[in-house]
Amino acid sequence: MVDTSVSGRSVLKNGRRWVIKIGSALLTADGKGLDESGIRSWVAQMAELRNQGVELVLVSSGAIAAGMSRLGWQARPSAMHELQVAAAVGQMGLSQTWQSAFAEHGIETAQVLLTHADLSNRQRYLNARSALSTMLSLGVIPVINENDCVVTDEIRFGDNDTLGALAANLVEADVLVLLTDQDGLFTADPRTNPDAVLVDEKRASDSSLDAMAGEGKGALGRGGMFTKLRASRLAARSGASTVIAGGRIEQVIERLKDGESLGTLLLPDEERTLARKRWLAGHLRMKGRLVLDAGAVRALKEAGSSLLPVGVRGVEGVFQRGEMVACVSPDGAEVARGLVNYSSEQVGKVLGMPSHQMPAVLGFAGEPELVHRDNMVVL
Ligand SMILES: Nc1ncnc2c1ncn2[C@@H]1O[C@H](COP(=O)(O)OP(=O)(O)O)[C@@H](O)[C@H]1O
Ligand SMILES: N[C@@H](CCC(=O)OP(=O)(O)O)C(=O)O
C-alpha cells in the first residue's frame, strides 16, 4: 500500500497557501484595545511570507475586545445584543488597523465577514470560495472574522478557531496557523500546571491530545485549546497541517516558514488531494447528471480540465448552484462528480455553447466552467 501520510516541519517550508488565525487573547493587548505594535509586527512577517510566494488568508478575532475598549466597557458583557454591538463597533477599528498596517507594505486587504452556516450552505460555500480565490489571485489578503451581528452561539463560545479551519478547507490551504498567547499546546493548561510541557508534533487525530486540551478557556478569547484541537482535525479533513504557536515569539511566522521547530504541529493523516477526493466522493448527495460528449470526457480524464458547457450534451435532474452532479459519458458511465456552478435550468440553456456566449443567454456573467476542476473528482 502506498504511504500517503505526511510528516514533519517540511510541510511548513513547502506550503504555498497559509491561513493565519490570530486570537483575541493576542490581539487585544490583555483587554486594553488592539495591540497595534503586535499587529505591525505580524503584518511585516506576513508581507515577508508573501514575498516568498506564499498566498495568505488572515482570520482575525478581536472585534468584541476592541469594541469594549472603544465603548469604555471594562468587563465583557454577557447579554448577546451587547456583545453584538461591541463586535460591530470593534470590527470597524479592527479592519482599519489591518488595512493601514498592510498598506505600509503596499498590500491590499479585503474584509470578509462569514458565519459557519454560510459555509455549510453549498451555494454560499461556492460563492465564498470563488470570491476568496479571486482575491488570492489578485494578491489581496482576505481578513476574515465572524459576522457577529447575525450569530449567537459562536459569540457565546468565542470560537474563531473553527472559522480558521473552515477557511483552510475553503481555500484548500496547506497550513493553518493558530497564533495565541501560549507557545503551543502543552500537556496541560500551563496557567494552572507549571510542569506542563510543550507538545512538538503529533497527528491531529491522536486521541491522547484530548485530555491535554481539556475544556480550558482563556479570559478574552474563550475557546482555549479545546477549539484549537478540534479546528486542527477539521483542517486535516482537507489535508491541511495546523500549527498552534505563540504569537509573541519573535518573528514566529517567518521562523515557522523556515521550518524551525516552534509551537505544536498537528498533521493530517493523509495528503490534500486524497482527503479532498474522499470528501467530495463520499459526503454529498448527487442531485443530477450532465451528459458529456467524447471530447469533454477526454478533457476531464486526460487533460485534467474543468468542465465547460461546450462539451455538455444533456442535463438530467433538478439542481441548484453548488449542488453535486455526476458527469457521465455518452453511454452513461460516470466519469467524474463535482459541485456545479449553475442550476439545472441554466445549464439547459447553455448546452454545447462556448463559454463567452453564456452571459448573453443567462443575463449575467458567472464562471466560464460548469464544474471547476478544483470542485471535481475524476473517477
Ligand atoms: N493544554 C493547554 N496548553 C496551552 N494552553 C491551554 C491548554 N489548555 C488550556 N489552555 C488555555 O488556552 C488559552 C488560549 O486560548 P484562547 O484564550 O481561546 O486564545 P485565543 O483567543 O488565542 O483563541 C491559553 O491562555 C491557556 O490558558
Ligand atoms: N468574532 C469575535 C469572537 C471570536 C473570538 O474571540 O475567537 P477566539 O480568538 O478564537 O477566541 C470577535 O472578533 O471578537
TrEMBL record:
Pathway participation: Amino-acid biosynthesis; L-proline biosynthesis; L-glutamate 5-semialdehyde from L-glutamate: step 1/2
Chain sites annotated for binding ATP: 21, 180-181
UniProt entry keywords in alphabetical sequence: Amino-acid biosynthesis, ATP-binding, Cytoplasm, Kinase, Nucleotide-binding, Proline biosynthesis, Transferase
One GO MF term attached to the UniProt entry: glutamate 5-kinase activity
Pfam families named in the record: AA_kinase, PUA
Main location: cytoplasm
Entry's localization field: Cytoplasm
Chain's role: Catalyzes the transfer of a phosphate group to glutamate to form L-glutamate 5-phosphate.
Protein name: Glutamate 5-kinase
Organism in which the protein naturally occurs: Parendozoicomonas callyspongiae
Gene: proB
